[in-house]
Amino acid sequence: MELERQTVKPQRGAHAHRMVAEVAKGLAGELYDGLMHNDKLFAEWKRQHPHLADNPKALERAFIKRNWGRCLEGARTTLALMLSRPGNEELKAQISEALILDAGLVKGRTANN
What we know:
Layout: E1 7-8, E2 16-17, H1 18-35, H2 39-48, H3 56-67, H4 72-83, H5 89-103, H6 106-112
Antiparallel strand pairs: 1-2
Helix pairs in contact: 1-3, 1-4, 4-5
């Protein structure tokens, strides 16, 4: 199965393949879950987003939107590590293709940084 060459441009100007971006968003969500167990951090995040303070899901979405671009390297590493583990060969082929296409987006990443 051939993946489409899909890119996503996070706020910080970096380019990423859609699969890499989705993993980065998942990592940002996990980061949010870990950080917001700290009451002081959570209170500060709510203070910075008073219009969302009563909506925990919206607060999480705002965090992910703001920070997923910072999780791109971790997403690439996670996907690369998945290739070394036994498992679904079709999924591994998709991951491999996504990482290859993502690496081809270096020009867009360096031009915007």
